[in-house]
Amino acid sequence: MKKWSVIRLTSLIGGLAAITSIVTIIFLIKKIEGDYTRDAVKPHQTDSHELRLLLDEANRDNNRRISTVEETCKRRHLGRYQDRNFESFYKHPPAPQYTVFFIDMVHNLSYCPVYKAGSTTWFYNLCLLNGIPEEALANSSGQISIIARSVLPEMELSEAVEVLEKSRKLLVVRHPFERLLSAYRDKLENSVAGREHGTLHFYKKYGSKIVAKFRDERIAPPRSDQVIRPKDIPPPAGIEPTWREFVQYLIHTDLASYGDDHWMPYYLFCTPCLIRFNIIAKRT
Ligand SMILES: *[C@@H]1O[C@H](CO)[C@@H](O)[C@H](O)[C@H]1NC(C)=O
Ligand SMILES: *[C@@H]1O[C@H](CO)[C@@H](O)[C@H](O)[C@H]1NC(C)=O
Description:
The chain has helices at 2-14, 21-33, 48-75, 119-129, 134-139, 144-151, 157-166, 176-188, 199-214, 243-252, 266-269, and strands at residues 102-104, 109-112, 168-173, 279-282.
């Protein structure tokens, strides 16, 4: 029950608004290029009016998301709204996790990656912005987050605090339940497929423990016609947790012990109640 209210909060912060990511991305790219100025829109461009409307809409959506976060943090006494006289039900980190940010000083952009919410795309964008050629990224067998980290290394704490404060801060979210399902499918559902994405590691670290704790022999495993399985992918070994068991694990685990970036709630990982994000985009 309690856990679900926490997830509801996450849902609130995550499900901030409905807007196509395309519009948001155009808006972001324009902002990053610095040409989102009214003068830059040339009258002879037939689509300039439409583009302006799209940008205005994206801007409104963004402002609405920022206010929703602000109001939610305030209402729940989280982060900078912490109130010593008010015992908050929610655990909240005392300080931002500066080391999780990718801080691009050249482009004045600080990105907090929410895994399973467009992080691969944004690591890719950051690599391109920092001069890694597309072909090199396409050919590389390395993890894109590691490549991005190599061009944007972690900063010393004092420097990170200062730079982050001044820079444009980006958070990309996704509906929290969709994100959980995506994490399950990608990391836990099949320990045989996707080994390059660490599925075996995830099985050993979480899957096997989830099964040991939450397998209930009275509950029939899903039938093969109840499972979505892409063609050309080997079937799972049969030892993996089911979706139900994964959800059981989430409900019965203390949020502060979620431990994994792929399903840790946004408010614990990117601490939007401590950091004022300038852009909150939504992956749809
Ligand atoms: C990428 O790999 C392809 C096929 O293996 C090769 O033809 C191409 O030259 C490589 N490009 C770079 C930049 O290494
Ligand atoms: C970086 O972005 C922030 C937030 O949008 C802005 O206030 C600041 O002026 C920018 N700094 C530079 C050097 O452009």
